[in-house]
Amino acid sequence: MSPLAHRILWYPQVGSTNDVAGALAEQGADEGVVVVADQQTAGRGRLGRTWASPPGAGLYVSVVLRPPSHVAPLLTIAAGVAVADGIASATGLDVQLKWPNDVHVSGRKLAGILAEGAPRYVVLGIGINVMPAAYPPDVATRATSIESELGRPIDRGMVLAEVLAALASRYRELSTEGGRGVIDAWRRRAASTLGRRVEWDGGGEARLGLIENIDEDGALIVRSGSELVRIRSGEVRWI
Ligand code: BTN
Predict the structure, then answer these.
(1) Are strands 7-11 and 33-37 parallel, antiparallel or unpaired?
(2) How does strand 102-105 pair with strand 206-214?
(3) Nearest atom (ligand 1) to Cα of 58
(4) pLDDT one-digit tens code per residue, 37-93
(5) Quick one: what percent of the chain has pLDDT higher than 70?
(6) Does the model's pTM come out above 0.85?
(7) Angle at the Cα of 123 (from 119 to 129), degrees rounded to 5?
(8) Which stretches does DSSP call E strand in 68-219?
(9) Which residues of the chain fall below pLDDT 50?
(10) Exposure pattern of 149-177 as b/e (b: 16+ CB <10 Å)?
(11) What kind and span of H or E run contains 158?
(12) Eight-state DSSP code of residue 29
């Protein structure tokens, strides 16, 4: 059993597992409590989006963490690496990362991470598409699932166990050894995206550039003409 999963609460249906885990954290829940649901009726994604969470089609998971201050800045990058590594271990798929922590296979999104809370706790929300489902049309063209990619059924419990074990391991590494290993692992998983042309919103103005790297703080470094731009939050669009 992963040290980050000494207590797993599994619900048939919730609004958002992040809300359930956040309420538990507010009530003093220990680090490592995990909330899982078969279905979410109000699943949230990054940047105010919804996260389609049809019954049984995905893993909808939230983990309560209480990170020391030196761990917090790289936590979401480390979580992306852990989710990618865990899915790769459970499935053998060639899993890629898109900054900051979207998990892709074959150029389509397979999993995403939403970190909420702070400063006393962080709820790390992880959504993984396991089975093909009736996603809304805008999602369907950009998303994939583990079973669509593998062409066979997969045990959701095994995927969850691998992801939680990888998360525990990266979290421990970040706490005790710093961010070097996490950054290197992120670069390896994102190697195919380095050099890629992207567009982003730079203070109300659309900007274009080529991805160079991520820096030691997890910020994305993009070359735009002769300028190197450091993007700390938000998203970039592949073009
Ligand atoms: C993203 O936009 O890529 C992040 C998606 C995060 C979805 C997960 S599913 C479990 C947890 N509960 C939520 O409401 N959101 C996160």
Answers:
(1) parallel
(2) unpaired
(3) 9
(4) 999 999 999 999 999 999 989 999 999 999 999 898 899 999 999 999 999 999 999
(5) 99
(6) yes
(7) 150
(8) 96-98, 102-105, 108-117, 122-129, 197-201, 206-214
(9) 1
(10) beeeebebeebbbbbbbbbbbbbebbeee
(11) helix 156-177
(12) P
How open is the CA angle 206-211-215, to the nearest 5 degrees? Answer: 110
Q: Which residue puts its alpha carbon closest to atom 7 of ligand 1?
A: 127
CA of 126 to the centre of ligand 1 (A): 5
Q: Which residue has the tokens 């979580």?
A: 79
d(CA 87, CA 214): 22
**Mutational pocket test of ligand 1: of 101, 114, 145, 237, the residue with most ligand atoms within 8 Å of the beta carbon:** 114
Domains of the chain: 7-189 (3.30.930.10), 194-238 (2.30.30.100)
Ligand 1 near 67 CB (within 6 A): no
Q: What is the pLDDT of residue 1?
A: 47
Please give the pLDDT value at position 137. 79
The β-bridge relationship of strands 102-105 and 108-117 is antiparallel
Q: How far is CA 143 from CA 50, 135, 190, 204, 210, in A?
A: 14, 9, 18, 28, 24
Non-local CB neighbours of 215 within 8 Å, separated by 6+ positions: 221, 230
DSSP string, 1-25: --TT-SEEEEES-BS-HHHHHHHHH
Q: How far is the CA of 227 from the centre of ligand 1 (A)?
A: 34
Amino acid code (one letter) for 42: A
Please give the Cα distance from 17 to 2 (Å, whole number): 19
User: Of 58, 45, 62, 63, which Cα lies nearest the Cα of 4?
Assistant: 63
